[in-house]
Amino acid sequence: MAYYAARLAAAVPAAQACWLVGVSFGGLxxxxxxxxxxxxxxxxxxxxxxxxELPWPLRVARATGLDRxxxxxxxxxxxxAAKWAFGVKTKGEYVLLRQIIADTNPAFAQWAIGQLLRxxxxxxxxxxxxxxxxxxxxxxxxxxxIDCLVAGAGHFLVVSHATQISQFLNQLATNSH
Length: 177
Hints:
single chain, Rossmann fold, 4-stranded parallel sheet, alpha/beta
């Protein structure tokens, strides 16, 4: 993951202040990139701040290597399970989720899941802000340190609660000047 983060960080000049907003696995990448770009401020959405926040089923998968046994196309074959796991509620959200899953390279998805499970975290102050849904089944919100806890939202909150997320990010940006 460090190599992938370095490739992404190359797009951000080292002396430039910026915001890195990472959703789910992208949050881990945002934290990794921030190690290379010290002027970056990180916002995590439906993500982990460290490996200590992995829910117990994912800790079991990590300990047993179960993720290596699951075929990378499993989500494509079980769309209703994906709908439940992501907390999708409307037909439009379901159509979008199915399209995202169909467009995701299965090998990349398997690699990303493995990286998430075995991530060691990063040193430092952590994220500037965190947003999370109260009903996130994939990565449940930790007990503390969430700046914007969105009631009723699941892991797909960037779609299901896009207006609230945008308002929070705009407020964050406005208050940082």
